[in-house]
Specification:
By secondary structure, the chain is mainly beta. 0% of the residues lie in helices and 37% in strands. The strands form 6 sheets. A 6-stranded mixed sheet has the order 6-7-8-9-10-11, with no helix packed on it. Strand 13 and strand 14 (159-164) form a beta hairpin.
């Protein structure tokens, strides 16, 4: 009949209601609105256009914020979206513009993307034509500890760099005076830029015949009667062999044993 029957008790200025209140409009309170129940006190907000339902609930052992319907849940400050949890569990953190993806978690694969909403690996770091990289540091560089960085570079991002910071800040790992330790190129080359390649345990293995150590960067030997035909050390063996030396194609020869 258009009327709502309530059991209302006024105690010390508070209004206690032992019933269900349904309001098709706005409720304005100049004080505190408290809902209490011995079993899961709940506030439900419903938009009837698409049946978007949001529950706020206090259970015996926890509290719950829930998008009961299959709609995303969005956290917004200053009229700008900051965080979105999709109905399928995907989580998006937005940049300060409220729309550009900053960090994305794919709930179906457990992949995490930074600056991408389609991570293709457990962790993918992308950039908007910047210098994508990862900085590894301890204690934020205090006590003179220098961070290390890994990043991409080159005209077509064809090189991965491993750097040491030029100072004790993370930004120094990609600064102009950074120390580039190693470069790994998409073409397959690996370059040690600073220091020496030290094999502490094990061997340097040349796995393909005809490959070896190339000394072409060295200055070729010069002098009368010297002709350099190769600078590639591509074969080495240890053992016992017999050398036979002949003169002018004759049959006379001298043998010697070399170990």
């Amino acid at each position: 009949d258009g009327t709502t029957n309530l059991d209302v008790v006024d105690i010390d200025g508070a209004v206690d209601m032992a019933s269900t209140l349904q309001v098709d409009g706005a409720i304005t309170s100049n004080g505190e609105l408290t809902l209490s129940s011995a079993s899961a006190a709940r506030i439900r907000l419903t938009d009837t256009t698409n049946t978007a339902i949001f529950d706020i609930r206090a259970n015996d052992s926890d509290v719950l914020l829930r998008a009961t319907s299959s709609h995303p849940m969005i956290l917004n400050t200053a009229q700008t979206n900051r965080l979105q949890i999709a109905a399928n569990g995907d989580i998006t953190f937005f940049d300060d513009d409220g729309s550009t993806v900053g960090v994305f978690f794919d709930a179906s694969t457990d992949f995490l993307g930074i600056n991408t909403n389609a991570p293709a690996a457990p962790l993918q770091v992308d950039s908007n034509n910047g210098f994508p990289g990862i900085i590894l540091s301890r204690d934020g560089g205090v006590s003179g500890r220098r961070p290390f960085g890994m990043g991409l570079g080159g005209n077509t991002d064809s090189t991965m760099f491993i750097n040491a910071s030029n100072d004790t800040t993370g930004a120094g790992a990609f600064g102009g005076s950074r120390v580039v330790l190693m470069e790994l190129e998409a073409a397959g080359n690996v370059t040690v830029k600073t220091g020496s390649l030290i094999i502490d345990s094990g061997n340097l293995v040349i796995g393909t015949a005809g490959r070896g150590i190339d000394f072409s960067a060295q200055t070729p030997a010069s002098g009368t009667g010297i002709t350099v035909v190769a600078e590639l050390l591509d074969h080495y063996e240890e053992g016992t062999c017999i050398l036979e030396i002949t003169a002018d194609g004759g049959t006379d020869f001298t043998t010697a044993t070399n170990n």
